[in-house]
Amino acid sequence: MMDVKKNDRFTVVIEDISQDGSGIGKLDGYIWFIKDTVTGDVVEARAMKMKKSYGFARLEKVVKPSPNRIEPVCPVARQCGGCQLQAMSYQEQLRFKENKVYNNLLRIGGFYNLRRAAQAGEADREEGNVGRGSAEDAKAIDFLPIMGMDNPWRYRNKAQFPFGEDREGHVVTGFYAGRTHVIIPQEDCLLGVEENREILAVIKEHMRQFQIPPYNEQKQEGLVRHALIRKGFRTGELMVCLVINGRRLPGKEQLVERLCRLKGMASISYSINTERNNVIMGKEIVNLYGPEYITDYIGDIQYRISPLSFYQVNPVQTEKLYGTALEYAGLTGDETVWDLYCGIGTISLFLAEKARKVYGVEIIPEAIRDARENARINGIENVEFFVGKAEEVLPRWYEKNRSRADVIVVDPPRKGCDPVCLDTIVQMQPEKVVYVSCDSATLARDLRYLCDRGFEVEKVRCCDMFGWTGHVETVVLLTQKNSMSSSIYERSRTLFTGQEGAGKQQ
Ligand code: SAH
């Protein structure tokens, strides 16, 4: 096989999809990764880069399309770094994501007892996948069907458009090509809101009229670096924040006047970023119009979103994901709950309505400031937020207070939870742990860790928050394996000592 050299063309069948969404084909035992292909395609590809046992090739021609292949709707699907799965039907994407999580739980976590009744779009196909040993030695884990989007287009409430110049010196804006800072002109990304296009047109016209040059990264010259656009999906409110390489924006009154003609315009500002770096937003915001924030809702909770705030980009699916987390928490109103990696407190505030007390922990101080503000504007008083690392705040708190928790929710970044954090969770003996994850490999690792220390997985459910990309979110419910016996133990201790053990919090 290895007589294939760089730039050679060859024909291959796509047999599988890698974790990051590339098609996988095999020739004489050698593995090829080919982007923009779908399982079942027969393709002609060109060898680009070769390692010992695998290589990367570029799709040249689809010889025979897979039944799950679709014509990409986006005209720049292949150049743009945003989407990886534009050639895959949405149903197939959901299956791909479910399989990815399922396989990681199986292979990395060793959960052979997953029980999947049916897969996305195949309500009646019984998968022969109740793994070995499932019935005898472990209770089956319910692997529930993925929650897909009703409409997988225009779901993003936030976009950051970079500005630059084309060869002829015209201002262009769009998206970066994968792994580069080359701008692919595209003002109407189909994942974003329709208003983006109108707003960008106003900004470009303004730059033309006032002869404002876009920023040039190499030369570090020019003014306009990015435009941040956000929309409150429930409220219809729009935010525009221009990121500029300077302190002054020429003709700002005229820009405000023009933008305000657009329906829903609620907040206009600029952010000063004169640093030479990859960070989009500068820290200093100069407000030009409106209260410097827009408002939106997830469930009945109101959020104030400033240019620098974190906010979930797909609010519709977020509501489903966190709604599932809340359902799994099974709160009755009496519980003490921790929300670790709480961000701006989205889950904490969801939980607070149904719990006695919620504690949130998050490493970024600004996010905690927003979380407290969000609690305040919603009149929620039974939450308390801590700034710090979950693996430091939680052990310190437990050391001092020695009180356990009823439910602990975690929503960590991709690297998952620190073992110290997991150890403390084990010590605090919550009846339930709800794990929300954006990376099923670290999820599988952490679930195994908890299951080796007294927990068992009850249910797993995926949620698609980012259609056309390879990302998938998962919610998992864990319970104490011997919760019955531990409560008996608690009771018998009470009998012996005449007082409550290190049990419920006072
Ligand atoms: N549920 C949150 C989002 C969670 S994203 C919301 O809806 O707002 C993961 C969060 O974990 C990020 O906000 C990140 O800043 C935070 N984080 C990362 N490492 C952390 C750590 N070691 N301890 C606590 N928080 C951390």
Structure description:
This protein is of the alpha/beta class. Helix content is 25%, strand content 29%. The protein is built from eleven helices and 23 strands. It has helices at 90-107, 134-137, 195-209, 252-259, 315-329, 346-352, 365-377, 390-401, 419-428, 440-451, 483-497; strands at 9-17, 23-27, 30-34, 42-50, 54-64, 114-115, 141-147, 158-165, 171-176, 183-185, 224-231, 238-244, 265-272, 284-289, 294-298, 301-305, 336-340, 357-362, 383-387, 407-410, 432-437, 455-463, 473-480. The strands form four sheets. The protein has a nine-stranded mixed β-sheet with strand order 6-7-22-23-21-20-17-18-19, sandwiched between helices. It has a seven-stranded mixed β-sheet with strand order 10-9-8-11-12-13-14. A five-stranded mixed barrel has the order 1-2-3-5-4. Helix 1 (90-107) packs parallel to helix 10, helix 3 runs antiparallel to helix 4 (252-259) and helix 5 packs across helix 6. The longest helix has 18 residues, at 90-107. The radius of gyration is 25 Å and the shape is globular. Residues 124-136, 485-489 and 496-506 have low confidence and may be disordered. Bound molecules: S-adenosyl-L-homocysteine. S-adenosyl-L-homocysteine (SAH) is lined by residues 310, 312, 341-344, 346-347, 361-364, 367, 389-391, 411-413. S-adenosyl-L-homocysteine is lined by residues 310, 312, 341-344, 346-347, 361-364, 367, 389-391, 411-413.
